[in-house]
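Researcher: I'm preparing a figure for a lab meeting and need a structural model of a single chain. I don't have an experimental structure, so a prediction will have to do for now. The sequence is pasted below. Please return the structure as tokens so I can convert it later.
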Amino acid sequence: MDGAEVPLLTISVAVAVACLVQFCLTAFGSTDGMGPNRIVGIKTRATQASDNAWSAGHRAAQPALLAAALTGLGAAIPLGLSAWLTDASGSVVLTTASALTAVLVLALGGYAVYRANSAARHAGTNGGN
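Model: Understood. Here is the structure written out token by token.
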């Protein structure tokens, strides 16, 4: 496996794992009061404005984070195994599927940040209601 799909699948898996970790941490952060911090979380001005904005933003990002994680891992692992087991490295179909997976995972990750920021801004202007 030495075609263009290698970096594409690496990106997909890396972003998917990051989204999965964030999904798990967000579940704990939203329910257990893990407020804005320097280590984990979706960091925008809006999400870091208050504990309430942090929680609202991260709750809103949950579906997109999970979708990114499941899409990335659900597609990249079989694609990688397929390329490795069948020696299909460099095929147009595999490279295209790998590229589409990477784009979709990155888009879902970006959408998670967008949702988090929007919900946090709304929580900030609404006083959390």
